[in-house]
Write a structure and sequence with these properties.
- This protein has 432 residues and is of the alpha/beta class.
- Among the domains are: 51-184, Rossmann fold (3-Layer(aba) Sandwich); 205-357, Rossmann fold, CATH 3.40.50.720.
- It contains 13 helices and twelve strands.
- Strand 3 (85-92), helix 2 and strand 4 form a beta-alpha-beta unit.
- Helix 1 (23-34) runs parallel beside helix 2.
- It is globular.
- The structure holds nicotinamide-adenine-dinucleotide.
- Residues 161-164, 206, 233-239, 257-259, 283, 309-311, 331-333, 358, 361 line the site of nicotinamide-adenine-dinucleotide (NAD).
- Nicotinamide-adenine-dinucleotide binds next to helix 6.
């Protein structure tokens, strides 16, 4: 295959002006950092700076008051070299094309790092779910699914839940796709209710993956799990589930921050009670079993492990210089800025990157997709066992690569993943 000529400046796409501190800027910088390690495949790295397909759609719906509301929707297929696109759908007021492009790029890397037979994709709708009724959310979901319907499908691109989307939203997506195509293709989305072809264990899979990877990383660093002090940012699907599993295993959850506030308790929070409190609608703030602290003070809490499990760009260089943890487990996608990576490396703090640490969700999504094709379903025990086996194997390979190449775990994960993606790209050749 002919060499790709590098563009005038990396990421030179006319339709985005990447903010270096934004998510797509972060992704481009991560690609920049891995490229010198890719040998002759480095000539093909330009393809990683250019999403394969970018779809922007208008999502008009009838609001409950009879007016028409318009929402911006996106679906980005970053790479399809290794298989159909795979990645979640986010509903959030901060969703932008740039963000969805980065999240799709991270899915390409993640699916390859874990060796799942998928490319990378992501979707999102720019809306504030707190301001919409359930019926309005359903209408947005159905119209968005119809608008992106031409490029999704069990062999094309398979959406899943992400921030503010859940099994119910996946059920509406699956139903809309079935109504539009006339095909009962349950494998068009994953993270569906178990009753509709969903997989046991999927709802907890990302948090469980953070736990499995975290236990393995602690062991490799000779840090005891029993009594380990853990601070968690984000108390949603990923953060709350990881916190519960760590607490159950003997660690202490000493601080939790969410979008509304932060709480701390040096003796360890009762995670089940905190979850009940936060589901009351006020988030974690005001929980009686802990001290409510300033949101920014969360980054100064004495802890051994930090789990960012909220949004991207949270661990800035300044915060990286303050945190007490020795180990960072990235539950969120893209939580650490590249300058923060440098600060953490200088301080000897180990970061297990998102592309392996939060890969439990997409791994069980893969199991769900396989089960849907076979119409034969596995037990939760089988699912959790295979999940742990795949994640531990992927971490071992990445850890050994980091040691052999003397690079941080993020660079090692990108080396392993980008080699797989670019080898597939080279083997397929350039069409036509
Ligand atoms: P969620 O909507 O269930 O929860 C998000 C949590 O983050 C909430 O507690 C919210 O209050 C908090 N949060 C939002 N903005 C914040 C801010 N500025 N500061 C502090 N806290 C904030 O979402 P989730 O599914 O748990 O996803 C969290 C992260 O994990 C995202 O980066 C997502 O892309 C990533 N992720 C999710 C999955 C999955 O299966 N759900 C899989 C892989 C990665």
């Amino acid at each position: 295959m002919a060499k790709t000529r590098a563009s005038a400046f990396h990421g030179g796409l006319s339709y985005v002006r990447p903010d270096p501190a934004g998510p797509w800027g972060t992704f481009l910088e991560q690609i920049e950092r891995v490229t010198p390690h890719l040998g002759e495949l480095a000539d093909l790295a330009e393809t990683l700076r250019r999403p394969k397909r970018t779809l922007i759609v208008d999502v008009p719906i009838e609001m409950d008051d009879g007016s028409v509301g318009h929402f911006e929707g996106f679906r980005v297929q970053h790479s399809l070299s290794r298989g159909p696109g795979k990645g979640g759908v986010r509903f959030h007021p901060g969703v932008t094309l740039e963000e969805v492009m980065a999240l799709a790029g991270w899915m390409t890397v993640k699916n390859a790092a874990v060796n799942l037979p998928f490319g990378g994709a992501k979707g999102g709708v720019r809306l504030d779910p707190k301001k919409l009724s359930k019926k309005e959310i359903e209408r947005v979901t159905r119209r968005y699914t119809s608008e992106i319907g031409g490029i999704i499908g069990p062999q094309q691109d398979i959406p899943a839940p992400d921030v503010n989307t859940d099994a119910q939203i996946m059920a509406w997506m699956m139903d809309t796709y079935a109504m539009n195509t006339g095909l009962a293709n349950t494998g068009v989305v994953t993270g569906k209710p178990v009753n509709l072809g969903g997989s046991l264990g999927r709802a907890q899979a990302t948090g469980r993956g953070v736990f499995v990877i975290g236990c393995d990383a602690l062991r490799r660093l000779d840090m005891p799990l029993e009594g380990a002090r853990i601070a968690v940012q984000g108390f949603g699907n990923v953060g709350a589930c990881a916190a519960a599993l760590f607490a159950e295993a003997g660690a202490k959850i000493v601080a939790v921050q969410d979008s509304r506030g932060a709480v701390a308790n040096a003796s360890g929070l009762n995670v089940a009670e905190l979850l009940q409190h936060s589901r009351g609608g006020s988030g974690v703030a005001g929980f009686s079993g802990a001290e409510t602290i300033d949101r920014e003070a969360f980054w100064d809490v004495a802890c051994d492990v930090l789990i960012p499990a909220a949004l991207e760009g949270q661990l800035t260089a300044a915060r990286a210089g303050r945190i007490a943890a020795r180990l960072v487990l990235e539950g969120a996608n893209g939580p650490t800025l590249p300058e923060a990576d440098d600060t953490l490396a200088e301080r000897g703090i180990i970061v297990v990157p998102d592309v392996i640490c939060n890969a439990g969700g997409v791994t069980v999504s893969y199991f769900e997709w396989v089960q849907d094709f076979a119409s034969y379903f596995w037990t939760e025990e089988e699912i959790n066992g295979r999940l742990a086996q795949i994640l531990r194997g992927a971490l071992r390979h990445i850890w050994e690569t980091a040691e052999r190449r003397k690079v941080p775990l993020r660079t090692a994960a990108f080396i392993v993943a980008c080699e797989r993606v670019l080898t597939a790209h080279r083997e397929r050749g350039l069409y036509p």
